[in-house]
Amino acid sequence: MPLFPGVKEGRVAVDDVDVPYYDSGTIAHHAEPVLLVHGTAGNAATSFSTIFPLFAMQRRVVALDLQVPLGDGPVTVEGYARQVVAVASGLEGATGVHLVGHSLGAVVAAAAAAELGSRILTVTLVSGWMKTNRSQLLRNTAWDALARSGLPQIAEFTVFTGYSPGYLDSLPQADFDAWIERARGIWTDPALPRIMDLNRRVDITASVSRITAPSLVIACKQDVMVPPLHSKQLFGAIENARYSEIDGGHAIVQERPVELYFMIDEFINDVNATSAGEVLRAGETDILRAR
Is 222 a domain residue? Predict the structure, then answer.
């Protein structure tokens, strides 16, 4: 997986699957790693090909590929969280981790943080949600119908819901066409309907109340998959949380990766610069407080 030169690959057995993970190794003086958790239709490479090497310039960074269970049983948040816990607990030389999750990965990261307790140094939840609501179910139902019908327009619908209008308009035609084709390829994964079913059943209300680590909740202002309302609910439910926004769509890891990286990096480098309950100024890489 070409995330960064010299990346080390490992595996850990969890339940009935082997979970791959990718470790940049100890970099400079930041030994405690950032652990990245991807969302529904991605993996470590497709989700974090930009921010993984950005983090790896200064510190150790690890990303895993979440694995669906064998057979045709349901995919669960709890099962995914066990995979994150196993990777975090098995990292040689690490006494704690900075946990970062995007989209469904934020849901999983929140559930894992509740279980890992003091091993979690910080938690960053990007475009996550606590409980699936009706608008998400409506979108998920439309996705499911398109997928089952075999209509090729599922790719256009995926791109439409994943990216902000301004970002799509900024793309050269060739790049835009490439995004459509890439989205079309996502739906060839036979496991995806099972993961999409999990999106319909998310409810981590009980877990988020047990997160004690300093947390940063980041919403994307133009997100139609997981609107900022959901991040605000997470912010309100986590006692030691701060809140900020980035002006972009749901796929912020592709739209504005550098801004996202700086926002997370500043937070984990100086947790004491902000206090629980603060709403941070959006668009600032130095996490200045709102005035």
Answer: yes
Amino acid 244 reads S
1-5, 73-77, 164-168, 238-242: the lowest-pLDDT one: 1-5
Alpha carbon separation from 87 to 5, 11, 66, 90, 109 (Å, rounded): 21, 8, 11, 5, 12
- Read off the tokens for 236: 């309100």
Residue 29 confidence (pLDDT): 53
Rounded to the nearest 5 degrees, what angle is found at the Cα of 167, between the Cα atoms of 162 and 152?
45
Q: Tell me which residue range forms the domain holding 40.
A: 8-133+202-273
DSSP 102-143: ETHHHHHHHHHHHHHGGGEEEEEEES--SB--HHHHHHHHHH
- Chain segment 94-147, per-residue pLDDT in tens: 889 999 999 999 999 999 999 998 899 999 999 999 999 999 999 999 999 998
> How far does Cα 259 stand from its chain's mean position?
15
Residue 175 lies in a domain: no
Residue bearing the bigger pLDDT, 49 or 282: 49
CATH classification at residue 50: 3.40.50.1820
Q: Tell me the two tokens of residue 278.
A: 């603060």
Q: Is 188 exposed, middle or buried (0-12, 13-18, 19+ CB in 10 A)?
A: exposed
**Cα(199)–Cα(107) distance, integer angstroms:** 10
Is residue 163 in a domain?
no
CB-based contacts of 20, cutoff 8 Å, min separation 6: 9, 10, 11, 44, 64, 65, 67
Q: How far is CA 136 from CA 7, 142, 205, 209, in A?
A: 36, 10, 17, 22
109, part of any domain: yes
By C-alpha distance, which of 121, 133, 132, 142 is closest to 32?
A: 121
DSSP 280: B
Number of domain units in the chain: 1
Residue 182 three-state SS: helix
Place of tokens 């946990």: 99
